[in-house]
Amino acid sequence: MIISNIETIPNKAIREHLGMVQGNTVRAKHMGKDILAGLKNIVGGELSAYTELLNEARQEATDRMIVQAQSMGANAVINVRFSTSSISSGAAELFVYGTAVKVD
Q1: From CA 71, how far away is CA 7, in angstroms rounded?
Q2: How high is the pLDDT of residue 37?
Q3: Alpha-carbon torsion 43, 92, 28, 21, what sign?
Q4: From 1.10.760.10, 3.30.930.10, 3.20.20.100, 3.30.110.70, which CATH number describes the 2-103 domain?
Q5: Out of 29, 62, 77, 86, which residue is the most buried by the measure of CB atoms under 10 Å away?
Q6: CB contact at 8 A, 75 and 103
Q7: What is the pLDDT of residue 103?
């Protein structure tokens, strides 16, 4: 599956637009990691536990989008975008969407 954040795929011709596809996941912070992140926030630096959490969430949401695109017969997804939103005080949604297409 080809994934692109632009509206075309270089050196490929789009033969058919199949529609929008999406994937999402909702993740909650781990209480222990939240305490450690709070301490790290005092001294500064990367909050690696949160970086890891976001990387996992992006991958899971993208995998779900790909499954949906494959079920439609696509071999590529173009114009891919990511979005996040707060669901509650300890949870956030990561949402990915794009346009499923068939390319040569």
Answers
A1: 21
A2: 52
A3: negative
A4: 3.30.110.70
A5: 77
A6: yes
A7: 98
**Measured distance CA(88)–CA(46) in Å, rounded:** 23
Structure tokens at 21: 């596809």
pLDDT tens for 11-56 read: 999 999 999 999 999 988 655 555 555 555 566 677 677 788 889 9
Give SS3 for 8.
coil
Burial state string for 40-65 with b = 16 or more CB within 10 A and e = fewer than 16 = beeeeeebebeeebbeebbebbbebb
Contacts of 39 (CB under 8 A, 6+ apart): none
Residues in CB range of 102: below 8 A, 6 or more apart: 14, 15, 16, 18, 73, 74, 75, 76
Delimit the domains of the chain by residue range: 2-103
Number of residues that this document lists for the chain: 104
Cβ neighbourhood burial of 10 (10 Å; 0-12, 13-18, 19+): exposed
